[in-house]
Write a structure and sequence with these properties.
about 35% helix
Length: about 70
Amino acid sequence: MIRIVRGNPTPEELAAALAVVRARVSGGAEGAPAPPPSEWSSPARVARTPRPGPGPHAWARTYWPS
């Protein structure tokens, strides 16, 4: 049950709010599972090679590939 606490919404505003709530409850597209996340933002994609360990000239190896 939904109750309006403040204000006096128009029928159009109330219908829009109820449509959003019903869509959220039903899961959007007939309960279809969400697509797998994109690999574009994966941290593993950015850091594919291990970082150089500490030692002499380690600062120079942080930028240039060896």
